[in-house]
Design brief:
Structural class: alpha+beta
Order of helices and strands: EEEEEHEHEHEHHHHHHEEHHHHH
Distance between the termini: 39 Å
Number of strands: 10
Number of helices: 14
Mean pLDDT: 87
Radius of gyration: 26 Å
Length: 374
Amino acid sequence: MSKRTRKAADGKSLVVTARDNVYVGLDVHKVTIHAAVRVNGCLTDTWVMPANAGSVIKTLEPFQAGLSQVVYEAGPTGFGLARALRRRGFPIDVIAPGKTPRPANPGSKSDRLDCRRLAQFAEKGLLKVVAIPTETEDQDRQVLRLRAQVVKKVRRVKQQIKSLLLYNAIAEPEGLKNWTLASVGALREMELPGGIRLFLEELLGELDHLRNKLRRVERAIALLARQERYRDLEVHLRTHPGVGQITAMTFLTEVYQPGRFVEPEELSCYVGLAPRVSQSGERRREGALIKAGRGTLRALLVEASWQWVGKDDFARAHYRRLTRNTGNSQKAIVGMARRMAVNLWCMAVRGEDYCLDYRRTTRGSRRSVSLAGG
């Protein structure tokens, strides 16, 4: 029988065999990692180590014979540690921080206590596991997220220019609402005092720089869409009314491994388009959206839904029905975005174009997506 040993917290030799149930909780930070080990329901060891995969692997090897699960929360350190441990055969899972149980009275908090709680919750099966993207999937997501960051910076610089004009009581040139080339040219030709002129020139220079960067990033996205792993799926998703290349690629990279979802509700919660439900007895109330997923993807889906409503008679009728039922056009368009997200998920798993089948109001066809997708 395979067995490994390690010194326990009390200094005694700890023997771990394949008959043992070992759970490890890791609290991962930039410089250090705190670890806690539970063997057969008892906390046996807690320690601190450098934040690198080699140190973690070396310290976990004595427990590998009976290791059931190693967990740490998803965060800014990414998934590199999880991939390294999986390559070495460790049963590692990354946990959704928002789904970790929180006591009503949390009491003290420290890295040492956090790793202990993670190990205890893992032993009791109380943690929600997230899918670990491959290195390629992770890198592809960065390209689309870079575009979102550049677009946000462009929007910020435009707002700064408008604020500068407003503060100094300078009338906006015609067409600046849509930022036409003529309006930007008019900004450059304005006769302004020295300080204001300098400020405006710097902002316009930054705007030009960001626009050039945005064009480079969008060319990279176009090349990525032609890669074999996305080429066919991107074409399928773009057949949905209102969906262009940016929306399709953002959906494919953020909703990676779409076959892992079984129900439409799971997909809606993942992208953050599911309402928070409060029900007690016969009373039921739907509140704000559950905080989950990427805000960029939600914004693109909502924007694409407006295009869908404008282009498709069925979508327009469904949107009007939702508006009547909710009394709120914003809630109605979010409902359309949720329907679009589910449609795109079905199309990605099945590998098919948008068709009349996606106009059905019943859920049966969507629930069979996992079987249809293989």
